[in-house]
Design brief:
Chain A has 431 residues and is α/β, with parallel strands linked by helices. Helix content of chain A is 36%, strand content 12%. Chain A has two domains: 131 residues, Alpha-Beta Complex (Aspartate Aminotransferase, domain 1), CATH 3.90.1150.10; 263 residues, Type I PLP-dependent aspartate aminotransferase-like (Major domain) (Aspartate Aminotransferase, domain 2, 3-Layer(aba) Sandwich), CATH 3.40.640.10. In chain A, the strands form three sheets. In chain A, strands 2-8-7-6-5-3-4 form a seven-stranded mixed β-sheet, sandwiched between helices. In chain A, strands 9-10-13-12 form a four-stranded antiparallel β-sheet. In chain A, strands 1-11 form a two-stranded parallel ribbon. In chain A, 58% of the residues are buried.
Amino acid sequence: MDFSPASDFASRLDARDPLAGYRSRFAIPDPDLVYLDGNSLGRLTLAAAERLRQAVEDQWGRELIRGYNQDWWQAPGRIGEKIAPLIGAAPGQVIASDTVSINLFKLAAAALELRPGRTKIITDTLNFPSDLYILQGLVRLLSRSQGEGRGGQHAILRIGSRDGDVTPDLDALAAALDAQTALVTLSHVTFKSGYLYDMAAITELAHRSGALVIWDLSHAVGAVTIELDTCNADFAVGCTYKYLNGGPGAPAFLYVREALQEQVVSPIWGWWGQQKPFAFGLDYVPAPGVTRFLSGSQPIMSLLAMETALAPLLEAGMPALRTKSLMLSEYLISLADTLLAPLGFSLGSPRDPARRGSHVSLRHPEGYRINRALIEELNLIPDFREPDNLRLGLTPLYTSFSEVWEGIDRIRRAVEEKRYEKYSPDKLTVT
Amino acid sequence: MDFSPASDFASRLDARDPLAGYRSRFAIPDPDLVYLDGNSLGRLTLAAAERLRQAVEDQWGRELIRGYNQDWWQAPGRIGEKIAPLIGAAPGQVIASDTVSINLFKLAAAALELRPGRTKIITDTLNFPSDLYILQGLVRLLSRSQGEGRGGQHAILRIGSRDGDVTPDLDALAAALDAQTALVTLSHVTFKSGYLYDMAAITELAHRSGALVIWDLSHAVGAVTIELDTCNADFAVGCTYKYLNGGPGAPAFLYVREALQEQVVSPIWGWWGQQKPFAFGLDYVPAPGVTRFLSGSQPIMSLLAMETALAPLLEAGMPALRTKSLMLSEYLISLADTLLAPLGFSLGSPRDPARRGSHVSLRHPEGYRINRALIEELNLIPDFREPDNLRLGLTPLYTSFSEVWEGIDRIRRAVEEKRYEKYSPDKLTVT
């Protein structure tokens, strides 16, 4: 155990945890640190550190440009195939590239083209704001050349929440879907409350209206079971630096359902998505399949580290990861109910495990200052999200039950000992 | 000297080279390798390798998400300011982000919006094809919502060459500029022949017609003198993995002239380009200045390695780098005239040093197979570009005159000894 004295109960849960051994695959230079922010940046695997060292010294340093003939050029497609089993995708539908924002831009533009004449885009207020910004920018761009009064301009409808941004208003979502709806795009797990959408039900509902669906899997992949193919999802994007442990800003991924691939056109062309990139022809011809959504040269060092980090997830398998994730969050919520609710905390995440991702938000009026105190004084890293969410990420590969116990105990101390009071309420940090 | 027996003349040039000492800042695991492909992928600096090790182990591994509060979040802007002096830009106009293709897409969309009603985009057949693809995709996207017969659709005009893709047809370029021209976009140094555009003259010519200019500096930055501000350039993009030695696929950069910054809108919004990213507001408000051209999370590991690699360039300074670059290419051309012209090679680059970048193309009907033989048998890495260009990149920080001499001698041997004949003319490699 890294943490002592842990509760006997937590110790027993750790002793029976079939994934407990995976913690040794990660760099843990400070065993006292309670790290509950793997949902922002996953820990470093020892294998990724070694892979990066090797890629730098042996490939970039020694092989130089020949690295592209080794395993660089094919990296986006090869890594896409490794991510595929984590998101329920058969081969040939996933590539790793660019950022979530860029990939969402590409897929949203492609999706809207598949639904000409339909002008409504549905999303929700629980979605990650950057996703909303991407949609807003795209709508503005598409409307530019239309001019006044020409009609056909897209509009974005944001479904709200009836319970303070914890769960979406599903009735409003269902009511909004109509024959004008081109696209529905949502975060599979919402970034603030960790609400987990029923992908199969929502996708079917959207399809019934003839709309396409893009799922943002950033807060879901590696932590919850995702079945894109089974759900008939059309498109998906996701990041790799959270539960996939790919490293800060590691390249994102995108998924295009096979049946749609030959119908769709990326708005951002480029030689990595060209049919014959080294013929250097002057006119773009899209590569077959999902590869057409590549554009420019990808950051190889960041890609290779991310690829290596996928191995333990693939070994553990999503069913075991999801099972442990739920045990961790159930345990955390039970501790919070007992120890933190009396101190003014309320649950900012769904209580129903079937509707919950792998992070839990605890709300407190002093959330921001408590977060500061935890980081500065109690060696606990959560993160804070406006207006009052202390967000606690649970990563089944390396978060232990003892760590959860210790984390809740430190939060209790931060409040009971009024440690937060010395911190300014002015927002400073970027985490 | 790494190479022996080098010619006495080359040795004397090396002995008097004020930049000779910079070679020791790079990893040179194989001193016999003649590496003339720094214009595709620059060599690894020892400092970048160490920075990456430190960023992986000490930051990602130990500090985890706190790395963003150290030096990650500010990296795109901070690194932009370091690139600025290499491209003649005053502070506040450059950011590092995404890829050249993505950045060109953003800037081209922004530029076209500044010239409503103008429908012509001028580029040339010497431009890097991916840049052409970006323009083609953007024009298609912008025309989508216009529908048939609505007019106003953009058209791309590609200026040709009168000498087999070595130099552009400047008369045709001048004649094409008119009151319908919204945008001119060119590679400052062309990827195949290494032709160096007169940035000041072309920019002024374009401005006289009321057009905006985007320069792609990918094959120029770090190798030729660039004066964006002095030339009144409007926009620029460039990559960092060639002469800037940033590493494979390291993030690109973009420049927006200060006077334009508050007028332009990126088509790809995102939280890194939002005014208050951590307020998580639901509506996009652009950040001030050039920062608004950021969108999603950037690959931090690749960014930091690239940042570190800039140091020796900044120390050496562009005037010294350009002087050595020209000495290297003059020397190479004189050797090629003497030793390789009799074997069927012709110069595929401008003979005028004022119009030449830092790579030299030598054309030969068996160019592809000679390239293969050089790589496989003679420990020389050039690269090949269709249809017959053996492309030789000269990197002033680490290419020595002896290396140039040795390189030309090995090319001579590859042809004289008919080593290329055993290789298939079928294109295999990606380099």
